[in-house]
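Ticket #398: bound-state structure for zinc ion.
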Amino acid sequence: MTTTVTVLNGVDTIGGNVVAFETQTARVIMDFGINFAPADSQPDDLLSNGVLPALPDLFTGIAGDKQTAIFISHLHLDHMGALKYLTKLTPVYMTMESATLYAELIRQGLESAPNAQVQVIAPNKDVQIGDLTVRAFATDHDIMGAVMFEVTDGQHRFVHSGDVRYDGWHPERVTAWTQYLHEHRPDLFFVEGTEFSFDDDTSRQRRTEATVLTDFTNAMASDELVVINPYERNVERLMNLSAAARQANRELVWDERFAGILRAMGVSNEIMLGQDVTVADMQQQPGRYVLQNHFDNLHLLDAFDTFSYLHMNGEPLGDYDPRYAELTAYLAQRGVALQLVGASGHATPDDLLRIAVEVDAKMTLPWHSFHPEREAEALRQIGIETYLPKKGETFTFE
Ligand SMILES: [Zn+2]
Ligand SMILES: [Zn+2]
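RESOLUTION: The complex was predicted; output attached.
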């Protein structure tokens, strides 16, 4: 039996890693992200300029000849942003948490409904796509429901790490899948390399979900209003922030978007702005509240004389986004310090090497990084068999 593995996108960038595993009759596509596409882009154009993965039968009228399914490791745009361009109705597998979040984002108009049959894949249960078997393993990343994937054809084993970190709340999940893989020696291990993207900066100290909560708790010690800007898809963090606020005798007030997501994800008794608490309430007793503020509603903060502002990986995420300058200018003009108290969802370079050592694949392929060659070099230096894949490259396994 012959299985081919084709690297379709995302070899030297953080956006849009896509890989296809194919036999004579079946095709499994892993992650379906996109790097950047203007709002009015057409699938045809994005296909011809290589922004969409080279899978013409999914985006045009060209017929496909194989049973096909797409698997989404988690609901970040760089792993699922191309779904909305599907023109052919395609089965798309994701975890229950991802599917629930996706449905809510679509309901709120934050994602467009894809031409997909969304199906749920449970961790540790096999899904059969023709003669290929896919298994998901729970992992740790800064979004709920994140998994990594293993694909087998009965003779060969291929692994897509998805995004992963070792210093989140669930390192035992990462240990579980690396130990499993160690016993089964994958033929190919695609490993993310996000944190190899950045130049060494010793002043940039590592921050974790735990430090987010510590900094948040410290900020709440004052009697000012505390304003936070987290990312709505990191629901576990939202839940932890809410619990920490209650511990500090404050109520965390969510906007409609965040309250809707929390409700959809099964979190009840959350406080919604306008419905449960008003701006006037917060003006009267600022020390009793924490206000979640999305950049879209930045000028809501005009209502407060003073507050502290904790940026926790919400939008705008960094200075590559023009809105970031707007945010910093607004806060500067208000005399409020911008406190960066977010945390990365990605493993440190050392932890990525540790994961590769633990997995001990026959071949490790770094990608999902602006500098995968740095990761490749570091892997080789510790004796890991490494290959830097190129866009469009196909590996054949007989
Ligand atoms: Zn991610
Ligand atoms: Zn990613």
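RESOLUTION NOTES: The chain has two domains: 3-198+346-397, 209-340.
TICKET STATUS: resolved
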